[in-house]
Design brief:
The complex is a heterodimer of chains A (about 270) and B (about 350).
Chain A lengths: L6 H4 L9 E10 L2 E11 L4 E6 L5 H9 L6 E6 L2 E3 L4 H6 L2 E4 L11 H5 L9 H5 L6 H14 L17 H15 L3 E5 L7 H16 L4 E4 L3 H7 L2 E6 L2 E6 L6 H9 L5
Parallel strand pairs in A: 3-8, 3-9, 6-7, 7-8
Antiparallel strand pairs in A: 1-2, 1-4, 4-5, 9-10
Chain B lengths: L17 H9 L1 H11 L3 H17 L6 H26 L7 H18 L4 H24 L5 H20 L4 E2 L5 H4 L4 E4 L2 E4 H19 L1 H11 L1 H6 L4 H27 L1 E2 L7 H11 L11 H20 L4 H23 L4
Antiparallel strand pairs in B: 1-4, 2-3
Classes of the chains: A alpha/beta (about 270), B mainly alpha (about 350).
Chain lengths: ~270, ~350
Amino acid sequence: MTSTTEATAERPLPTTPPILEARDLVKTFGRVVGLDGVSVQVYPGEVLAVIGDNGAGKSTLIKCLTGAEIPDSGELRLEGKRVHFRGPQDARAHGIETVYQTLAVSPALDVASNLFLGRERRRRGLLGSVLRSLDARGMRADAEAELRKLGISTLQDVSVAVENLSGGQRQAVAVARAAAFGSKVVILDEPTAALGVRESNQVLELIKDLRHRGLPVVLISHNMPQVFEVADRIHIQRLGRCAATVTPQTHSMTDAVAIMTGAATA
Amino acid sequence: MSTPPSGTVATAASAPDPATEFLARQSRLGRARSVLHRHPAVSPAVVLVAAIAVFGTINERLLLPANLSLILQQVAVVGTVALAQTLIILTAGIDLSIGAAMVLASMVIATTASELGVPGALALLLGLLVGLATGALNGVLVTRLKLPPFIVTLGTFNVFVALTLLYSGGATVRGADMPGLLTLTGAPITIGDVRITIGVLIMFALYVVVGYALTRTAWGRHVYAVGDDKEAARLAGIKVNRVLLSVYLAAGAIAAVCAWIQIGRTNAASPNAGVDLNLDSITAVVIGGTSLFGGRGTVWGTLLGALIVGVFRGGLSLAGLDVLYQTLAVGILVIAAVSIDQWIRKVRN
């Protein structure tokens, strides 16, 4: 049995108010309780990792934050203001961008089209307003700039179809899209699950870069070494509740896994 | 007590094998495949040129301007229906009712004009409304009831056929009994030996409009994205149902315009016309390199596909072969086209 210290009390509380906050979220699916009163705060410029065993309620929690699920009770606050998300579009409109496990990129479309998918820009003047012509050149240039800003050098040509990219490059496209449009929070659901070691490291660098730009990141992952490499705080979900919120400084990987599996309490 | 597993090791299996990549890049066949993958209209273009060359060698008369114009006129109706079919198939759907919708619209146009004495322009407008209604019915059933397009359009195909017979009483309306505007699409514009009908010009115009909408507007990208991966499109914020509904409405409208072309082409409106149009349109789309799995293909491929079928039929008949060999050839073409599509799609992995 591993010994743990009182984590929640010792955690240095950020002085700034949270950007995104969930209070007492409850979500049930028939008789199954997915979330049993979960609260979570996301502070500016931090990477908050959410870990937990299968069925612990990680995905349900994230879906409630992204509008993919509507909680039965509890409240969501964005910059202190109460918000209600009825669908992913609502969350997106509020500046919360999500990179899904399933990537949500369109394989046959090129990189630039994917970056702007769902919010294409039209040309100025009559061509745009009457003929609804797309500003393809402008979007391509902006896509290139966005990828450069994120330091994604492996993607030279934004007119390449996404299906011709490697898994890491596709993930980079998805992350770049989230970073380009996520003005408040970026949520990454298992971003490295399908990637090799080198590609995973690229994604971790992207996450660090987002934090560097002051954008808070919520990272859902099974991969403990990665979580401990990038996370500022770690929210441990267990049996539909938040078992503890720890930091890599106060807890070891073994401690976190012990809390996650119920072998220890924080 | 045993220690819990601390930290799973990063998965390392999915990195692409450089050797495989190298080999794929080197093989000439592989390179050809990626070109076809990027430009799905290339293979039908090659087939069309080859078909014209082969049949032109067998019988030089095929290459006469008069003959080529005839093939164009024959292609106008199926080519226009195939344009609507392309839109549906790009969304990973299929429309078995589109030919019947076209015939229904043509009977409404012809019968209201000839029996009720409705002016030609108004009759055409009514036909357009009927076309839109057929599209709306299919679209609502697909998006609201979440039924597979195959089943929906199989059902509405029968509904439209029954409505056509009910409305027309099974009688053919002759072109002479209609206002001149309705048969205008059959009127030729003659330049030397080349005779292009207005119907053919309308078909080309529709291709330009739909081609523009698909490649230069956000709507077009959304159509491709929905056909490519519906869930990814939804997560990217695309209103999938709205896109699907718009595609079925557009297909219905095109079917109505096609009804006008059909009346001009045959100088009549017959409730029994266009029995084979559904399958012929799918044939043209598939030969044109559009994938039945959605998200891949161009309207220009479809136009080429329709022309290929036209050249094969015309060429075989000029070569003196029976109609049954034309049908046989078209069947083989379809299977060959789908095989090529499957092979091209392997680039993905």
